Task: structure prediction
Amino acid sequence: MLKKIPKWNLVLFVIIVLEILVFGMMNPRFWNTSILLNSFNDFVPIAIIGFFLTLVVITGGIDISGVSIIGLSSVVTGLLSQTAGLNIWAAVVCAVLTGGLCGLLNGVLIAYARVQAMVITLGGMLLYSGIAIVLVGLSGVSTYEGFTGFPESFGQMANGEILGLPNAVIIFFILFLIAYILLHRTRFGRYLYLTGINQNTAEYAGINTKRVMMTAYVLSGLSAGVAGVVLTSYLGSARSDYGAEYLMPILTVVVLGGTLITGGKGGVVGTALASILLGFMQIGLQMAGVATQYIGLATGVLLIVSVAFLGINPDFRLNVKRIITHKQNGG
Result:
């Protein structure tokens, strides 16, 4: 049974267990189950985008515009429900679809116009952030306060619970399940891997790689829209700067989860484990009294180490292992 589980996922799981043990010894409150479950609210937006960014990275692409789509979808939610008087749940749907449209724009330019993904999504990050700021300005709402006064039912979406389980945990696993099925149980998922391994070969095999890549970016945009709505529900206000500090954590959970930045390899199970690992690390350091800036430093170190380790050529790692074994045998 364990042989079927990727070794890196097992490593991540062991690290999570060690985290719980170590942080619990530093502060026994960390072992409080309710605290751990409620901490999902702090990192569930990162995980939501990470699940579907994994699909993009597997194709060999990248999408850094999601952090701005979070703010844009948040503003759209507030603008339509508070200023335009639209039903809050209709506004939520429009906000998520707005994220999908941003992803569609990214996907079309990257897949069909063949512009570099980094260039397009960097430009998109600036564009979508700018649109969000303009919308807030036109509405006459304070940029600092944003839109407030949302219905209690909307706030309960992120802050409520079902059968004692926080909604944030439920949202986490629902989005994880959707991403898992798409990537590991559908033909589309297989096409994602084939496109990332060798796009030309995939095209010769009859796969419409352009459509596959575009769809991955649309899903990434939709997930950012969902993350923006969830964050708005959790904080009780809609602002254009939501998600601005999420770029490094999002990239960290994807790479730390075992997805190669060169494409062709990865999975959402690893991303889910990496999200939990990063989330527990942040709350553990906070409860241990570590300053906020050092928590960001820890995240950066985690990203660099994971990229360095997972990015090493497998043949090189194999040769290193052979050398170590040879030395141990007295060679």
Remarks:
- The chain has one domain: 2-328.
- The CA atoms of residues 191 and 282 lie 35 Å apart.
